[in-house]
Amino acid sequence: MADKKNILTYAGLKKLEEELENLKVVRRKEIADKIKEAREQGDLSENAEYDAAKEEQGHIEKRIEEIEKILKNAEVVDEEEIDLDKINIGCKVKVFDMEFDEEIEFKLVGSTEADSLNNMISNESPLGRALIGCKIGEVVDVETQGGIAQYRILDIQRNVE
Questions:
Q1: Alpha helices in 23-107, H assignment, sequence order
Q2: How far apart are CA 13 and CA 145, in angstroms?
Q3: Separation of alpha carbons 16 and 20, rounded Å
Q4: Comparing C-alpha atoms, which of 125, 123, 143 is closest to residue 133?
Q5: pTM value?
Q6: By C-alpha distance, which of 70, 81, 161 is closest to 118?
Q7: What pLDDT was estimated at residue 6?
Q8: Which of 11, 45, 76, 94 has the fewest Cβ atoms surrounding its Cβ within 10 A?
Q9: How many C-beta atoms lie closer than 10 Å to residue 106's C-beta?
Q10: 39-85, pLDDT tens digit by residue?
């Protein structure tokens, strides 16, 4: 089975590449130094610093592996070529939440970049899936755990960072 494509914006791609570079160049060296320092303290069987450093090393190597897999299967959305007539990944979208009578603005991104605390909604989320392909003025029904939520699409913009 082919690996799932990871849809990324250009900003998301750069962020992952920078994190990978930091992990490989900076963090690996820091951990190697910690392990070396802990080894120099003698008996490793009761050395908490050594155990902690080895555990941290495992986490770093796992994250490096995750990022490399994401990047290997990355498909980058060219935000300059986004059709602003309809919602797609990479768009900044403003909607009106009809239940709570409020405007919400967010960026629609691939699932790898999703971060609801920073208003980055996944294309695979219920809201993201419902909005893809919709146009300004449309009212969209989104099935949520609490029932059906309705949103009116107010604006679609190219994301400028």
A1: 28-39, 48-72
A2: 32
A3: 6
A4: 123
A5: 0.75
A6: 161
A7: 87
A8: 45
A9: 18
A10: 888 776 777 888 889 999 999 999 999 999 999 999 888 777 777 78
Residue with tokens 């909604």: 121
- Asked whether the CA dihedral 105, 110, 115, 118 is positive or negative, the reply is negative
One-letter-per-residue 3-state SS of 64-78:
HHHHHHHHHCEEEEC
Instruction: Please say whether the beta carbons of 105 and 92 come within 8 A.
Output: yes
Query: Coil, strand or helix: which one is 96?
Result: strand
Distance of alpha carbon 144 from alpha carbon 118, whole angstroms: 20
Token readout for 106 is 């967010």
Residue with tokens 């392909």: 133
Residue for token pair 């300059």: 80
Radius of gyration in angstroms for the set of CA atoms belonging to the chain, rounded to a whole number = 21
Residue 157 · residue 90 · CB < 8 Å: no
Tokens of 116: 């609801």
